[in-house]
């Protein structure tokens, strides 16, 4: 896909990429089964009845758990919501990412991108993200893991991306944000980075294209050719 960024590269009006930020769920790893197990357990424990299916839950992965719950019909009081979140997090931690797998080509691609500064920007709490990355032997590739934290607005706000860039000492114009949902693309745009949407994750291609990402790739491995082109 030829976007505005490629046109600017041709005219020499854009900085070379030095830093790549990646969303976690739906971009680096397929985590739908572990998330569904934890979500369904919390639903049965706190709400009761039949929980949403794994497919239904997967359509909302990438959003805060509170928002996922609301959109799936789980309207709870503040106290019950707190109980739900606690049950979800405990079960997710116990799962230890045992059902989560890297998408095809992720490890080889990260090895090929080792000359870039690499970071993860996720809505997950940093501790939960580290569980996944350690379990799958991905954590050594990344110099910074930016999870959701108090005081930072979540994607699509630019806050977590800007926090990650500050930790990596990188200006937004040198960075590329890679993600599978509109929130990832919009957050990158708001932060002033280049943006790359992946079509294989939890977001739909149609919704991603509406956000006008600079690039769209159909496999993580395509990222290597894309960033090498940016180096001229």
Structure commentary:
- This protein has helices spanning 4-10, 32-47, 54-58, 65-71, 78-95, 106-112, 126-135, 159-167, 182-191, 205-210, 222-230; strands at residues 19-22, 29-30, 101-102, 117-125, 144-148, 175-179, 194-198, 215-217.
- The protein starts with a helix and ends with a helix.
- Strand 7 (194-198), helix 10 (205-210) and strand 8 form a beta-alpha-beta unit.
- By secondary structure, the protein is α/β, with parallel strands linked by helices.
- The chain has eleven helices and eight strands.
- The radius of gyration is 18 Å and the shape is globular.
Note the beta-strand portion.
15-25%
Shape: globular
Which spans have pLDDT < 50 for at least 5 consecutive residues? 1-6, 8-13
Kindly provide the radius of gyration, computed on alpha-carbon positions and rounded to a whole number of angstroms: 18 Å
Count, helices: 11
Classify the secondary structure makeup into a structural class: alpha/beta
Q: Please give the order of strands in the largest beta sheet.
A: 5-4-1-6-7-8
Distance between the termini: 18 Å
From N to C, what is the helix and strand string? Answer: HEEHHHHEHEHEHEHEHEH
The total beta strand count reads 8
Assembly annotation: single chain
Largest sheet: 6 strands, parallel
Instruction: State the helical fraction.
Output: 40-55%
The pLDDT mean sits at 92
Itemize the secondary structure elements and their pairings.
Layout: H1 4-10, E1 19-22, E2 29-30, H2 32-47, H3 54-58, H4 65-71, H5 78-95, E3 101-102, H6 106-112, E4 117-125, H7 126-135, E5 144-148, H8 159-167, E6 175-179, H9 182-191, E7 194-198, H10 205-210, E8 215-217, H11 222-230
Parallel strand pairs: 1-4, 1-6, 4-5, 6-7, 7-8
Antiparallel strand pairs: 2-3
Helix pairs in contact: 2-5
């Amino acid at each position: 896909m030829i976007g505005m960024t490629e046109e600017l590269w041709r005219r020499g009006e854009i900085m070379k990429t030095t830093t790549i930020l990646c969303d976690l769920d739906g971009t680096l790893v397929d985590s739908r089964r572990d998330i569904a197990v934890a979500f369904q357990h919390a639903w049965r424990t706190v709400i009761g009845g039949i929980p949403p299916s794994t497919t239904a839950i997967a359509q909302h992965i990438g959003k805060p758990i509170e928002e996922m719950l609301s959109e799936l019909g789980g309207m709870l009081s503040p106290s019950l919501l707190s109980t739900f979140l606690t049950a979800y997090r405990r079960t997710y931690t116990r799962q230890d990412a045992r059902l989560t797998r890297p998408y095809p080509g992720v490890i080889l691609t990260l090895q090929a991108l080792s000359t870039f500064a690499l970071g993860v920007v996720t809505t997950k709490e940093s501790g939960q993200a580290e569980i996944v990355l350690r379990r799958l032997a991905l954590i050594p590739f990344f110099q910074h893991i930016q999870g959701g934290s108090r005081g930072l607005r979540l994607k699509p706000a630019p806050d977590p991306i800007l926090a990650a860039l500050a930790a990596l000492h990188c200006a937004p114009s040198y960075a590329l944000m890679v993600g599978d949902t509109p929130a990832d693309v919009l957050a990158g745009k708001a932060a002033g980075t280049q943006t790359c949407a992946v079509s294989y994750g939890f977001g739909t291609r149609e919704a991603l294209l509406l956000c006008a990402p600079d690039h769209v790739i159909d496999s993580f491995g395509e990222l290597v050719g894309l960033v090498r082109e940016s180096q001229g």
